[in-house]
Amino acid sequence: MCEELIAAHTKFNNMIEDKTWRKVDPCDARIMALTTKLEQLEMTRPAAIKPAAGRNEVHIADWRKKFDCEKKDMEEKTWHLCKQHKTKDDYDGLYVSLHTPKTHDKWEKNKKVCKAKSKGKAVDSSASEGATK
Question: Which of 18, 16, 36, 39 is nearest to 28 (CA)?
């Protein structure tokens, strides 16, 4: 313990002498900047895609579940009502921004292929299954 204390004191004295004691390590500065940026992005993420607390589910904003027109502009995006997005009790149609109702099947097929690739699985991209949430 005494040797460690002496080594720490020596290092401190050397850093004071060469004026590096109060300098920020560039690696630490970069980590702090990235952490700050990430926190800012998490705070500004639209409510329509914020994950539900403590679950792997995505919270869907209430306005996306209530039909009032075929297309609307919200959160700097154009949203289309797609009736193929359904749940048993929650909604029958959902406003989506990644596809139109006409391109739902193609979008869903691509989503399944991408999901399988990310898990390292081979996928038959010619097969298309029924609509899912």
Answer: 36
- DSSP-derived secondary structure letter, 56: S
Q: One-letter amino acid identity for 98?
A: L
Q: Please compute Rg for the chain using Cα positions.
A: 26
The residues spanned by each domain of the chain are: 62-118
pLDDT digits (tens, 9 = 90+) for 77-109: 898 888 888 887 777 788 888 888 899 999 889
User: Is there a contact between 2 and 9 (Cβ–Cβ < 8 Å)?
Assistant: no
**77 strand-pairing partners:** 74
**Nearest Cα residue to 131 out of 89, 83, 96:** 83
Q: What is the mean pLDDT of the chain?
A: 80
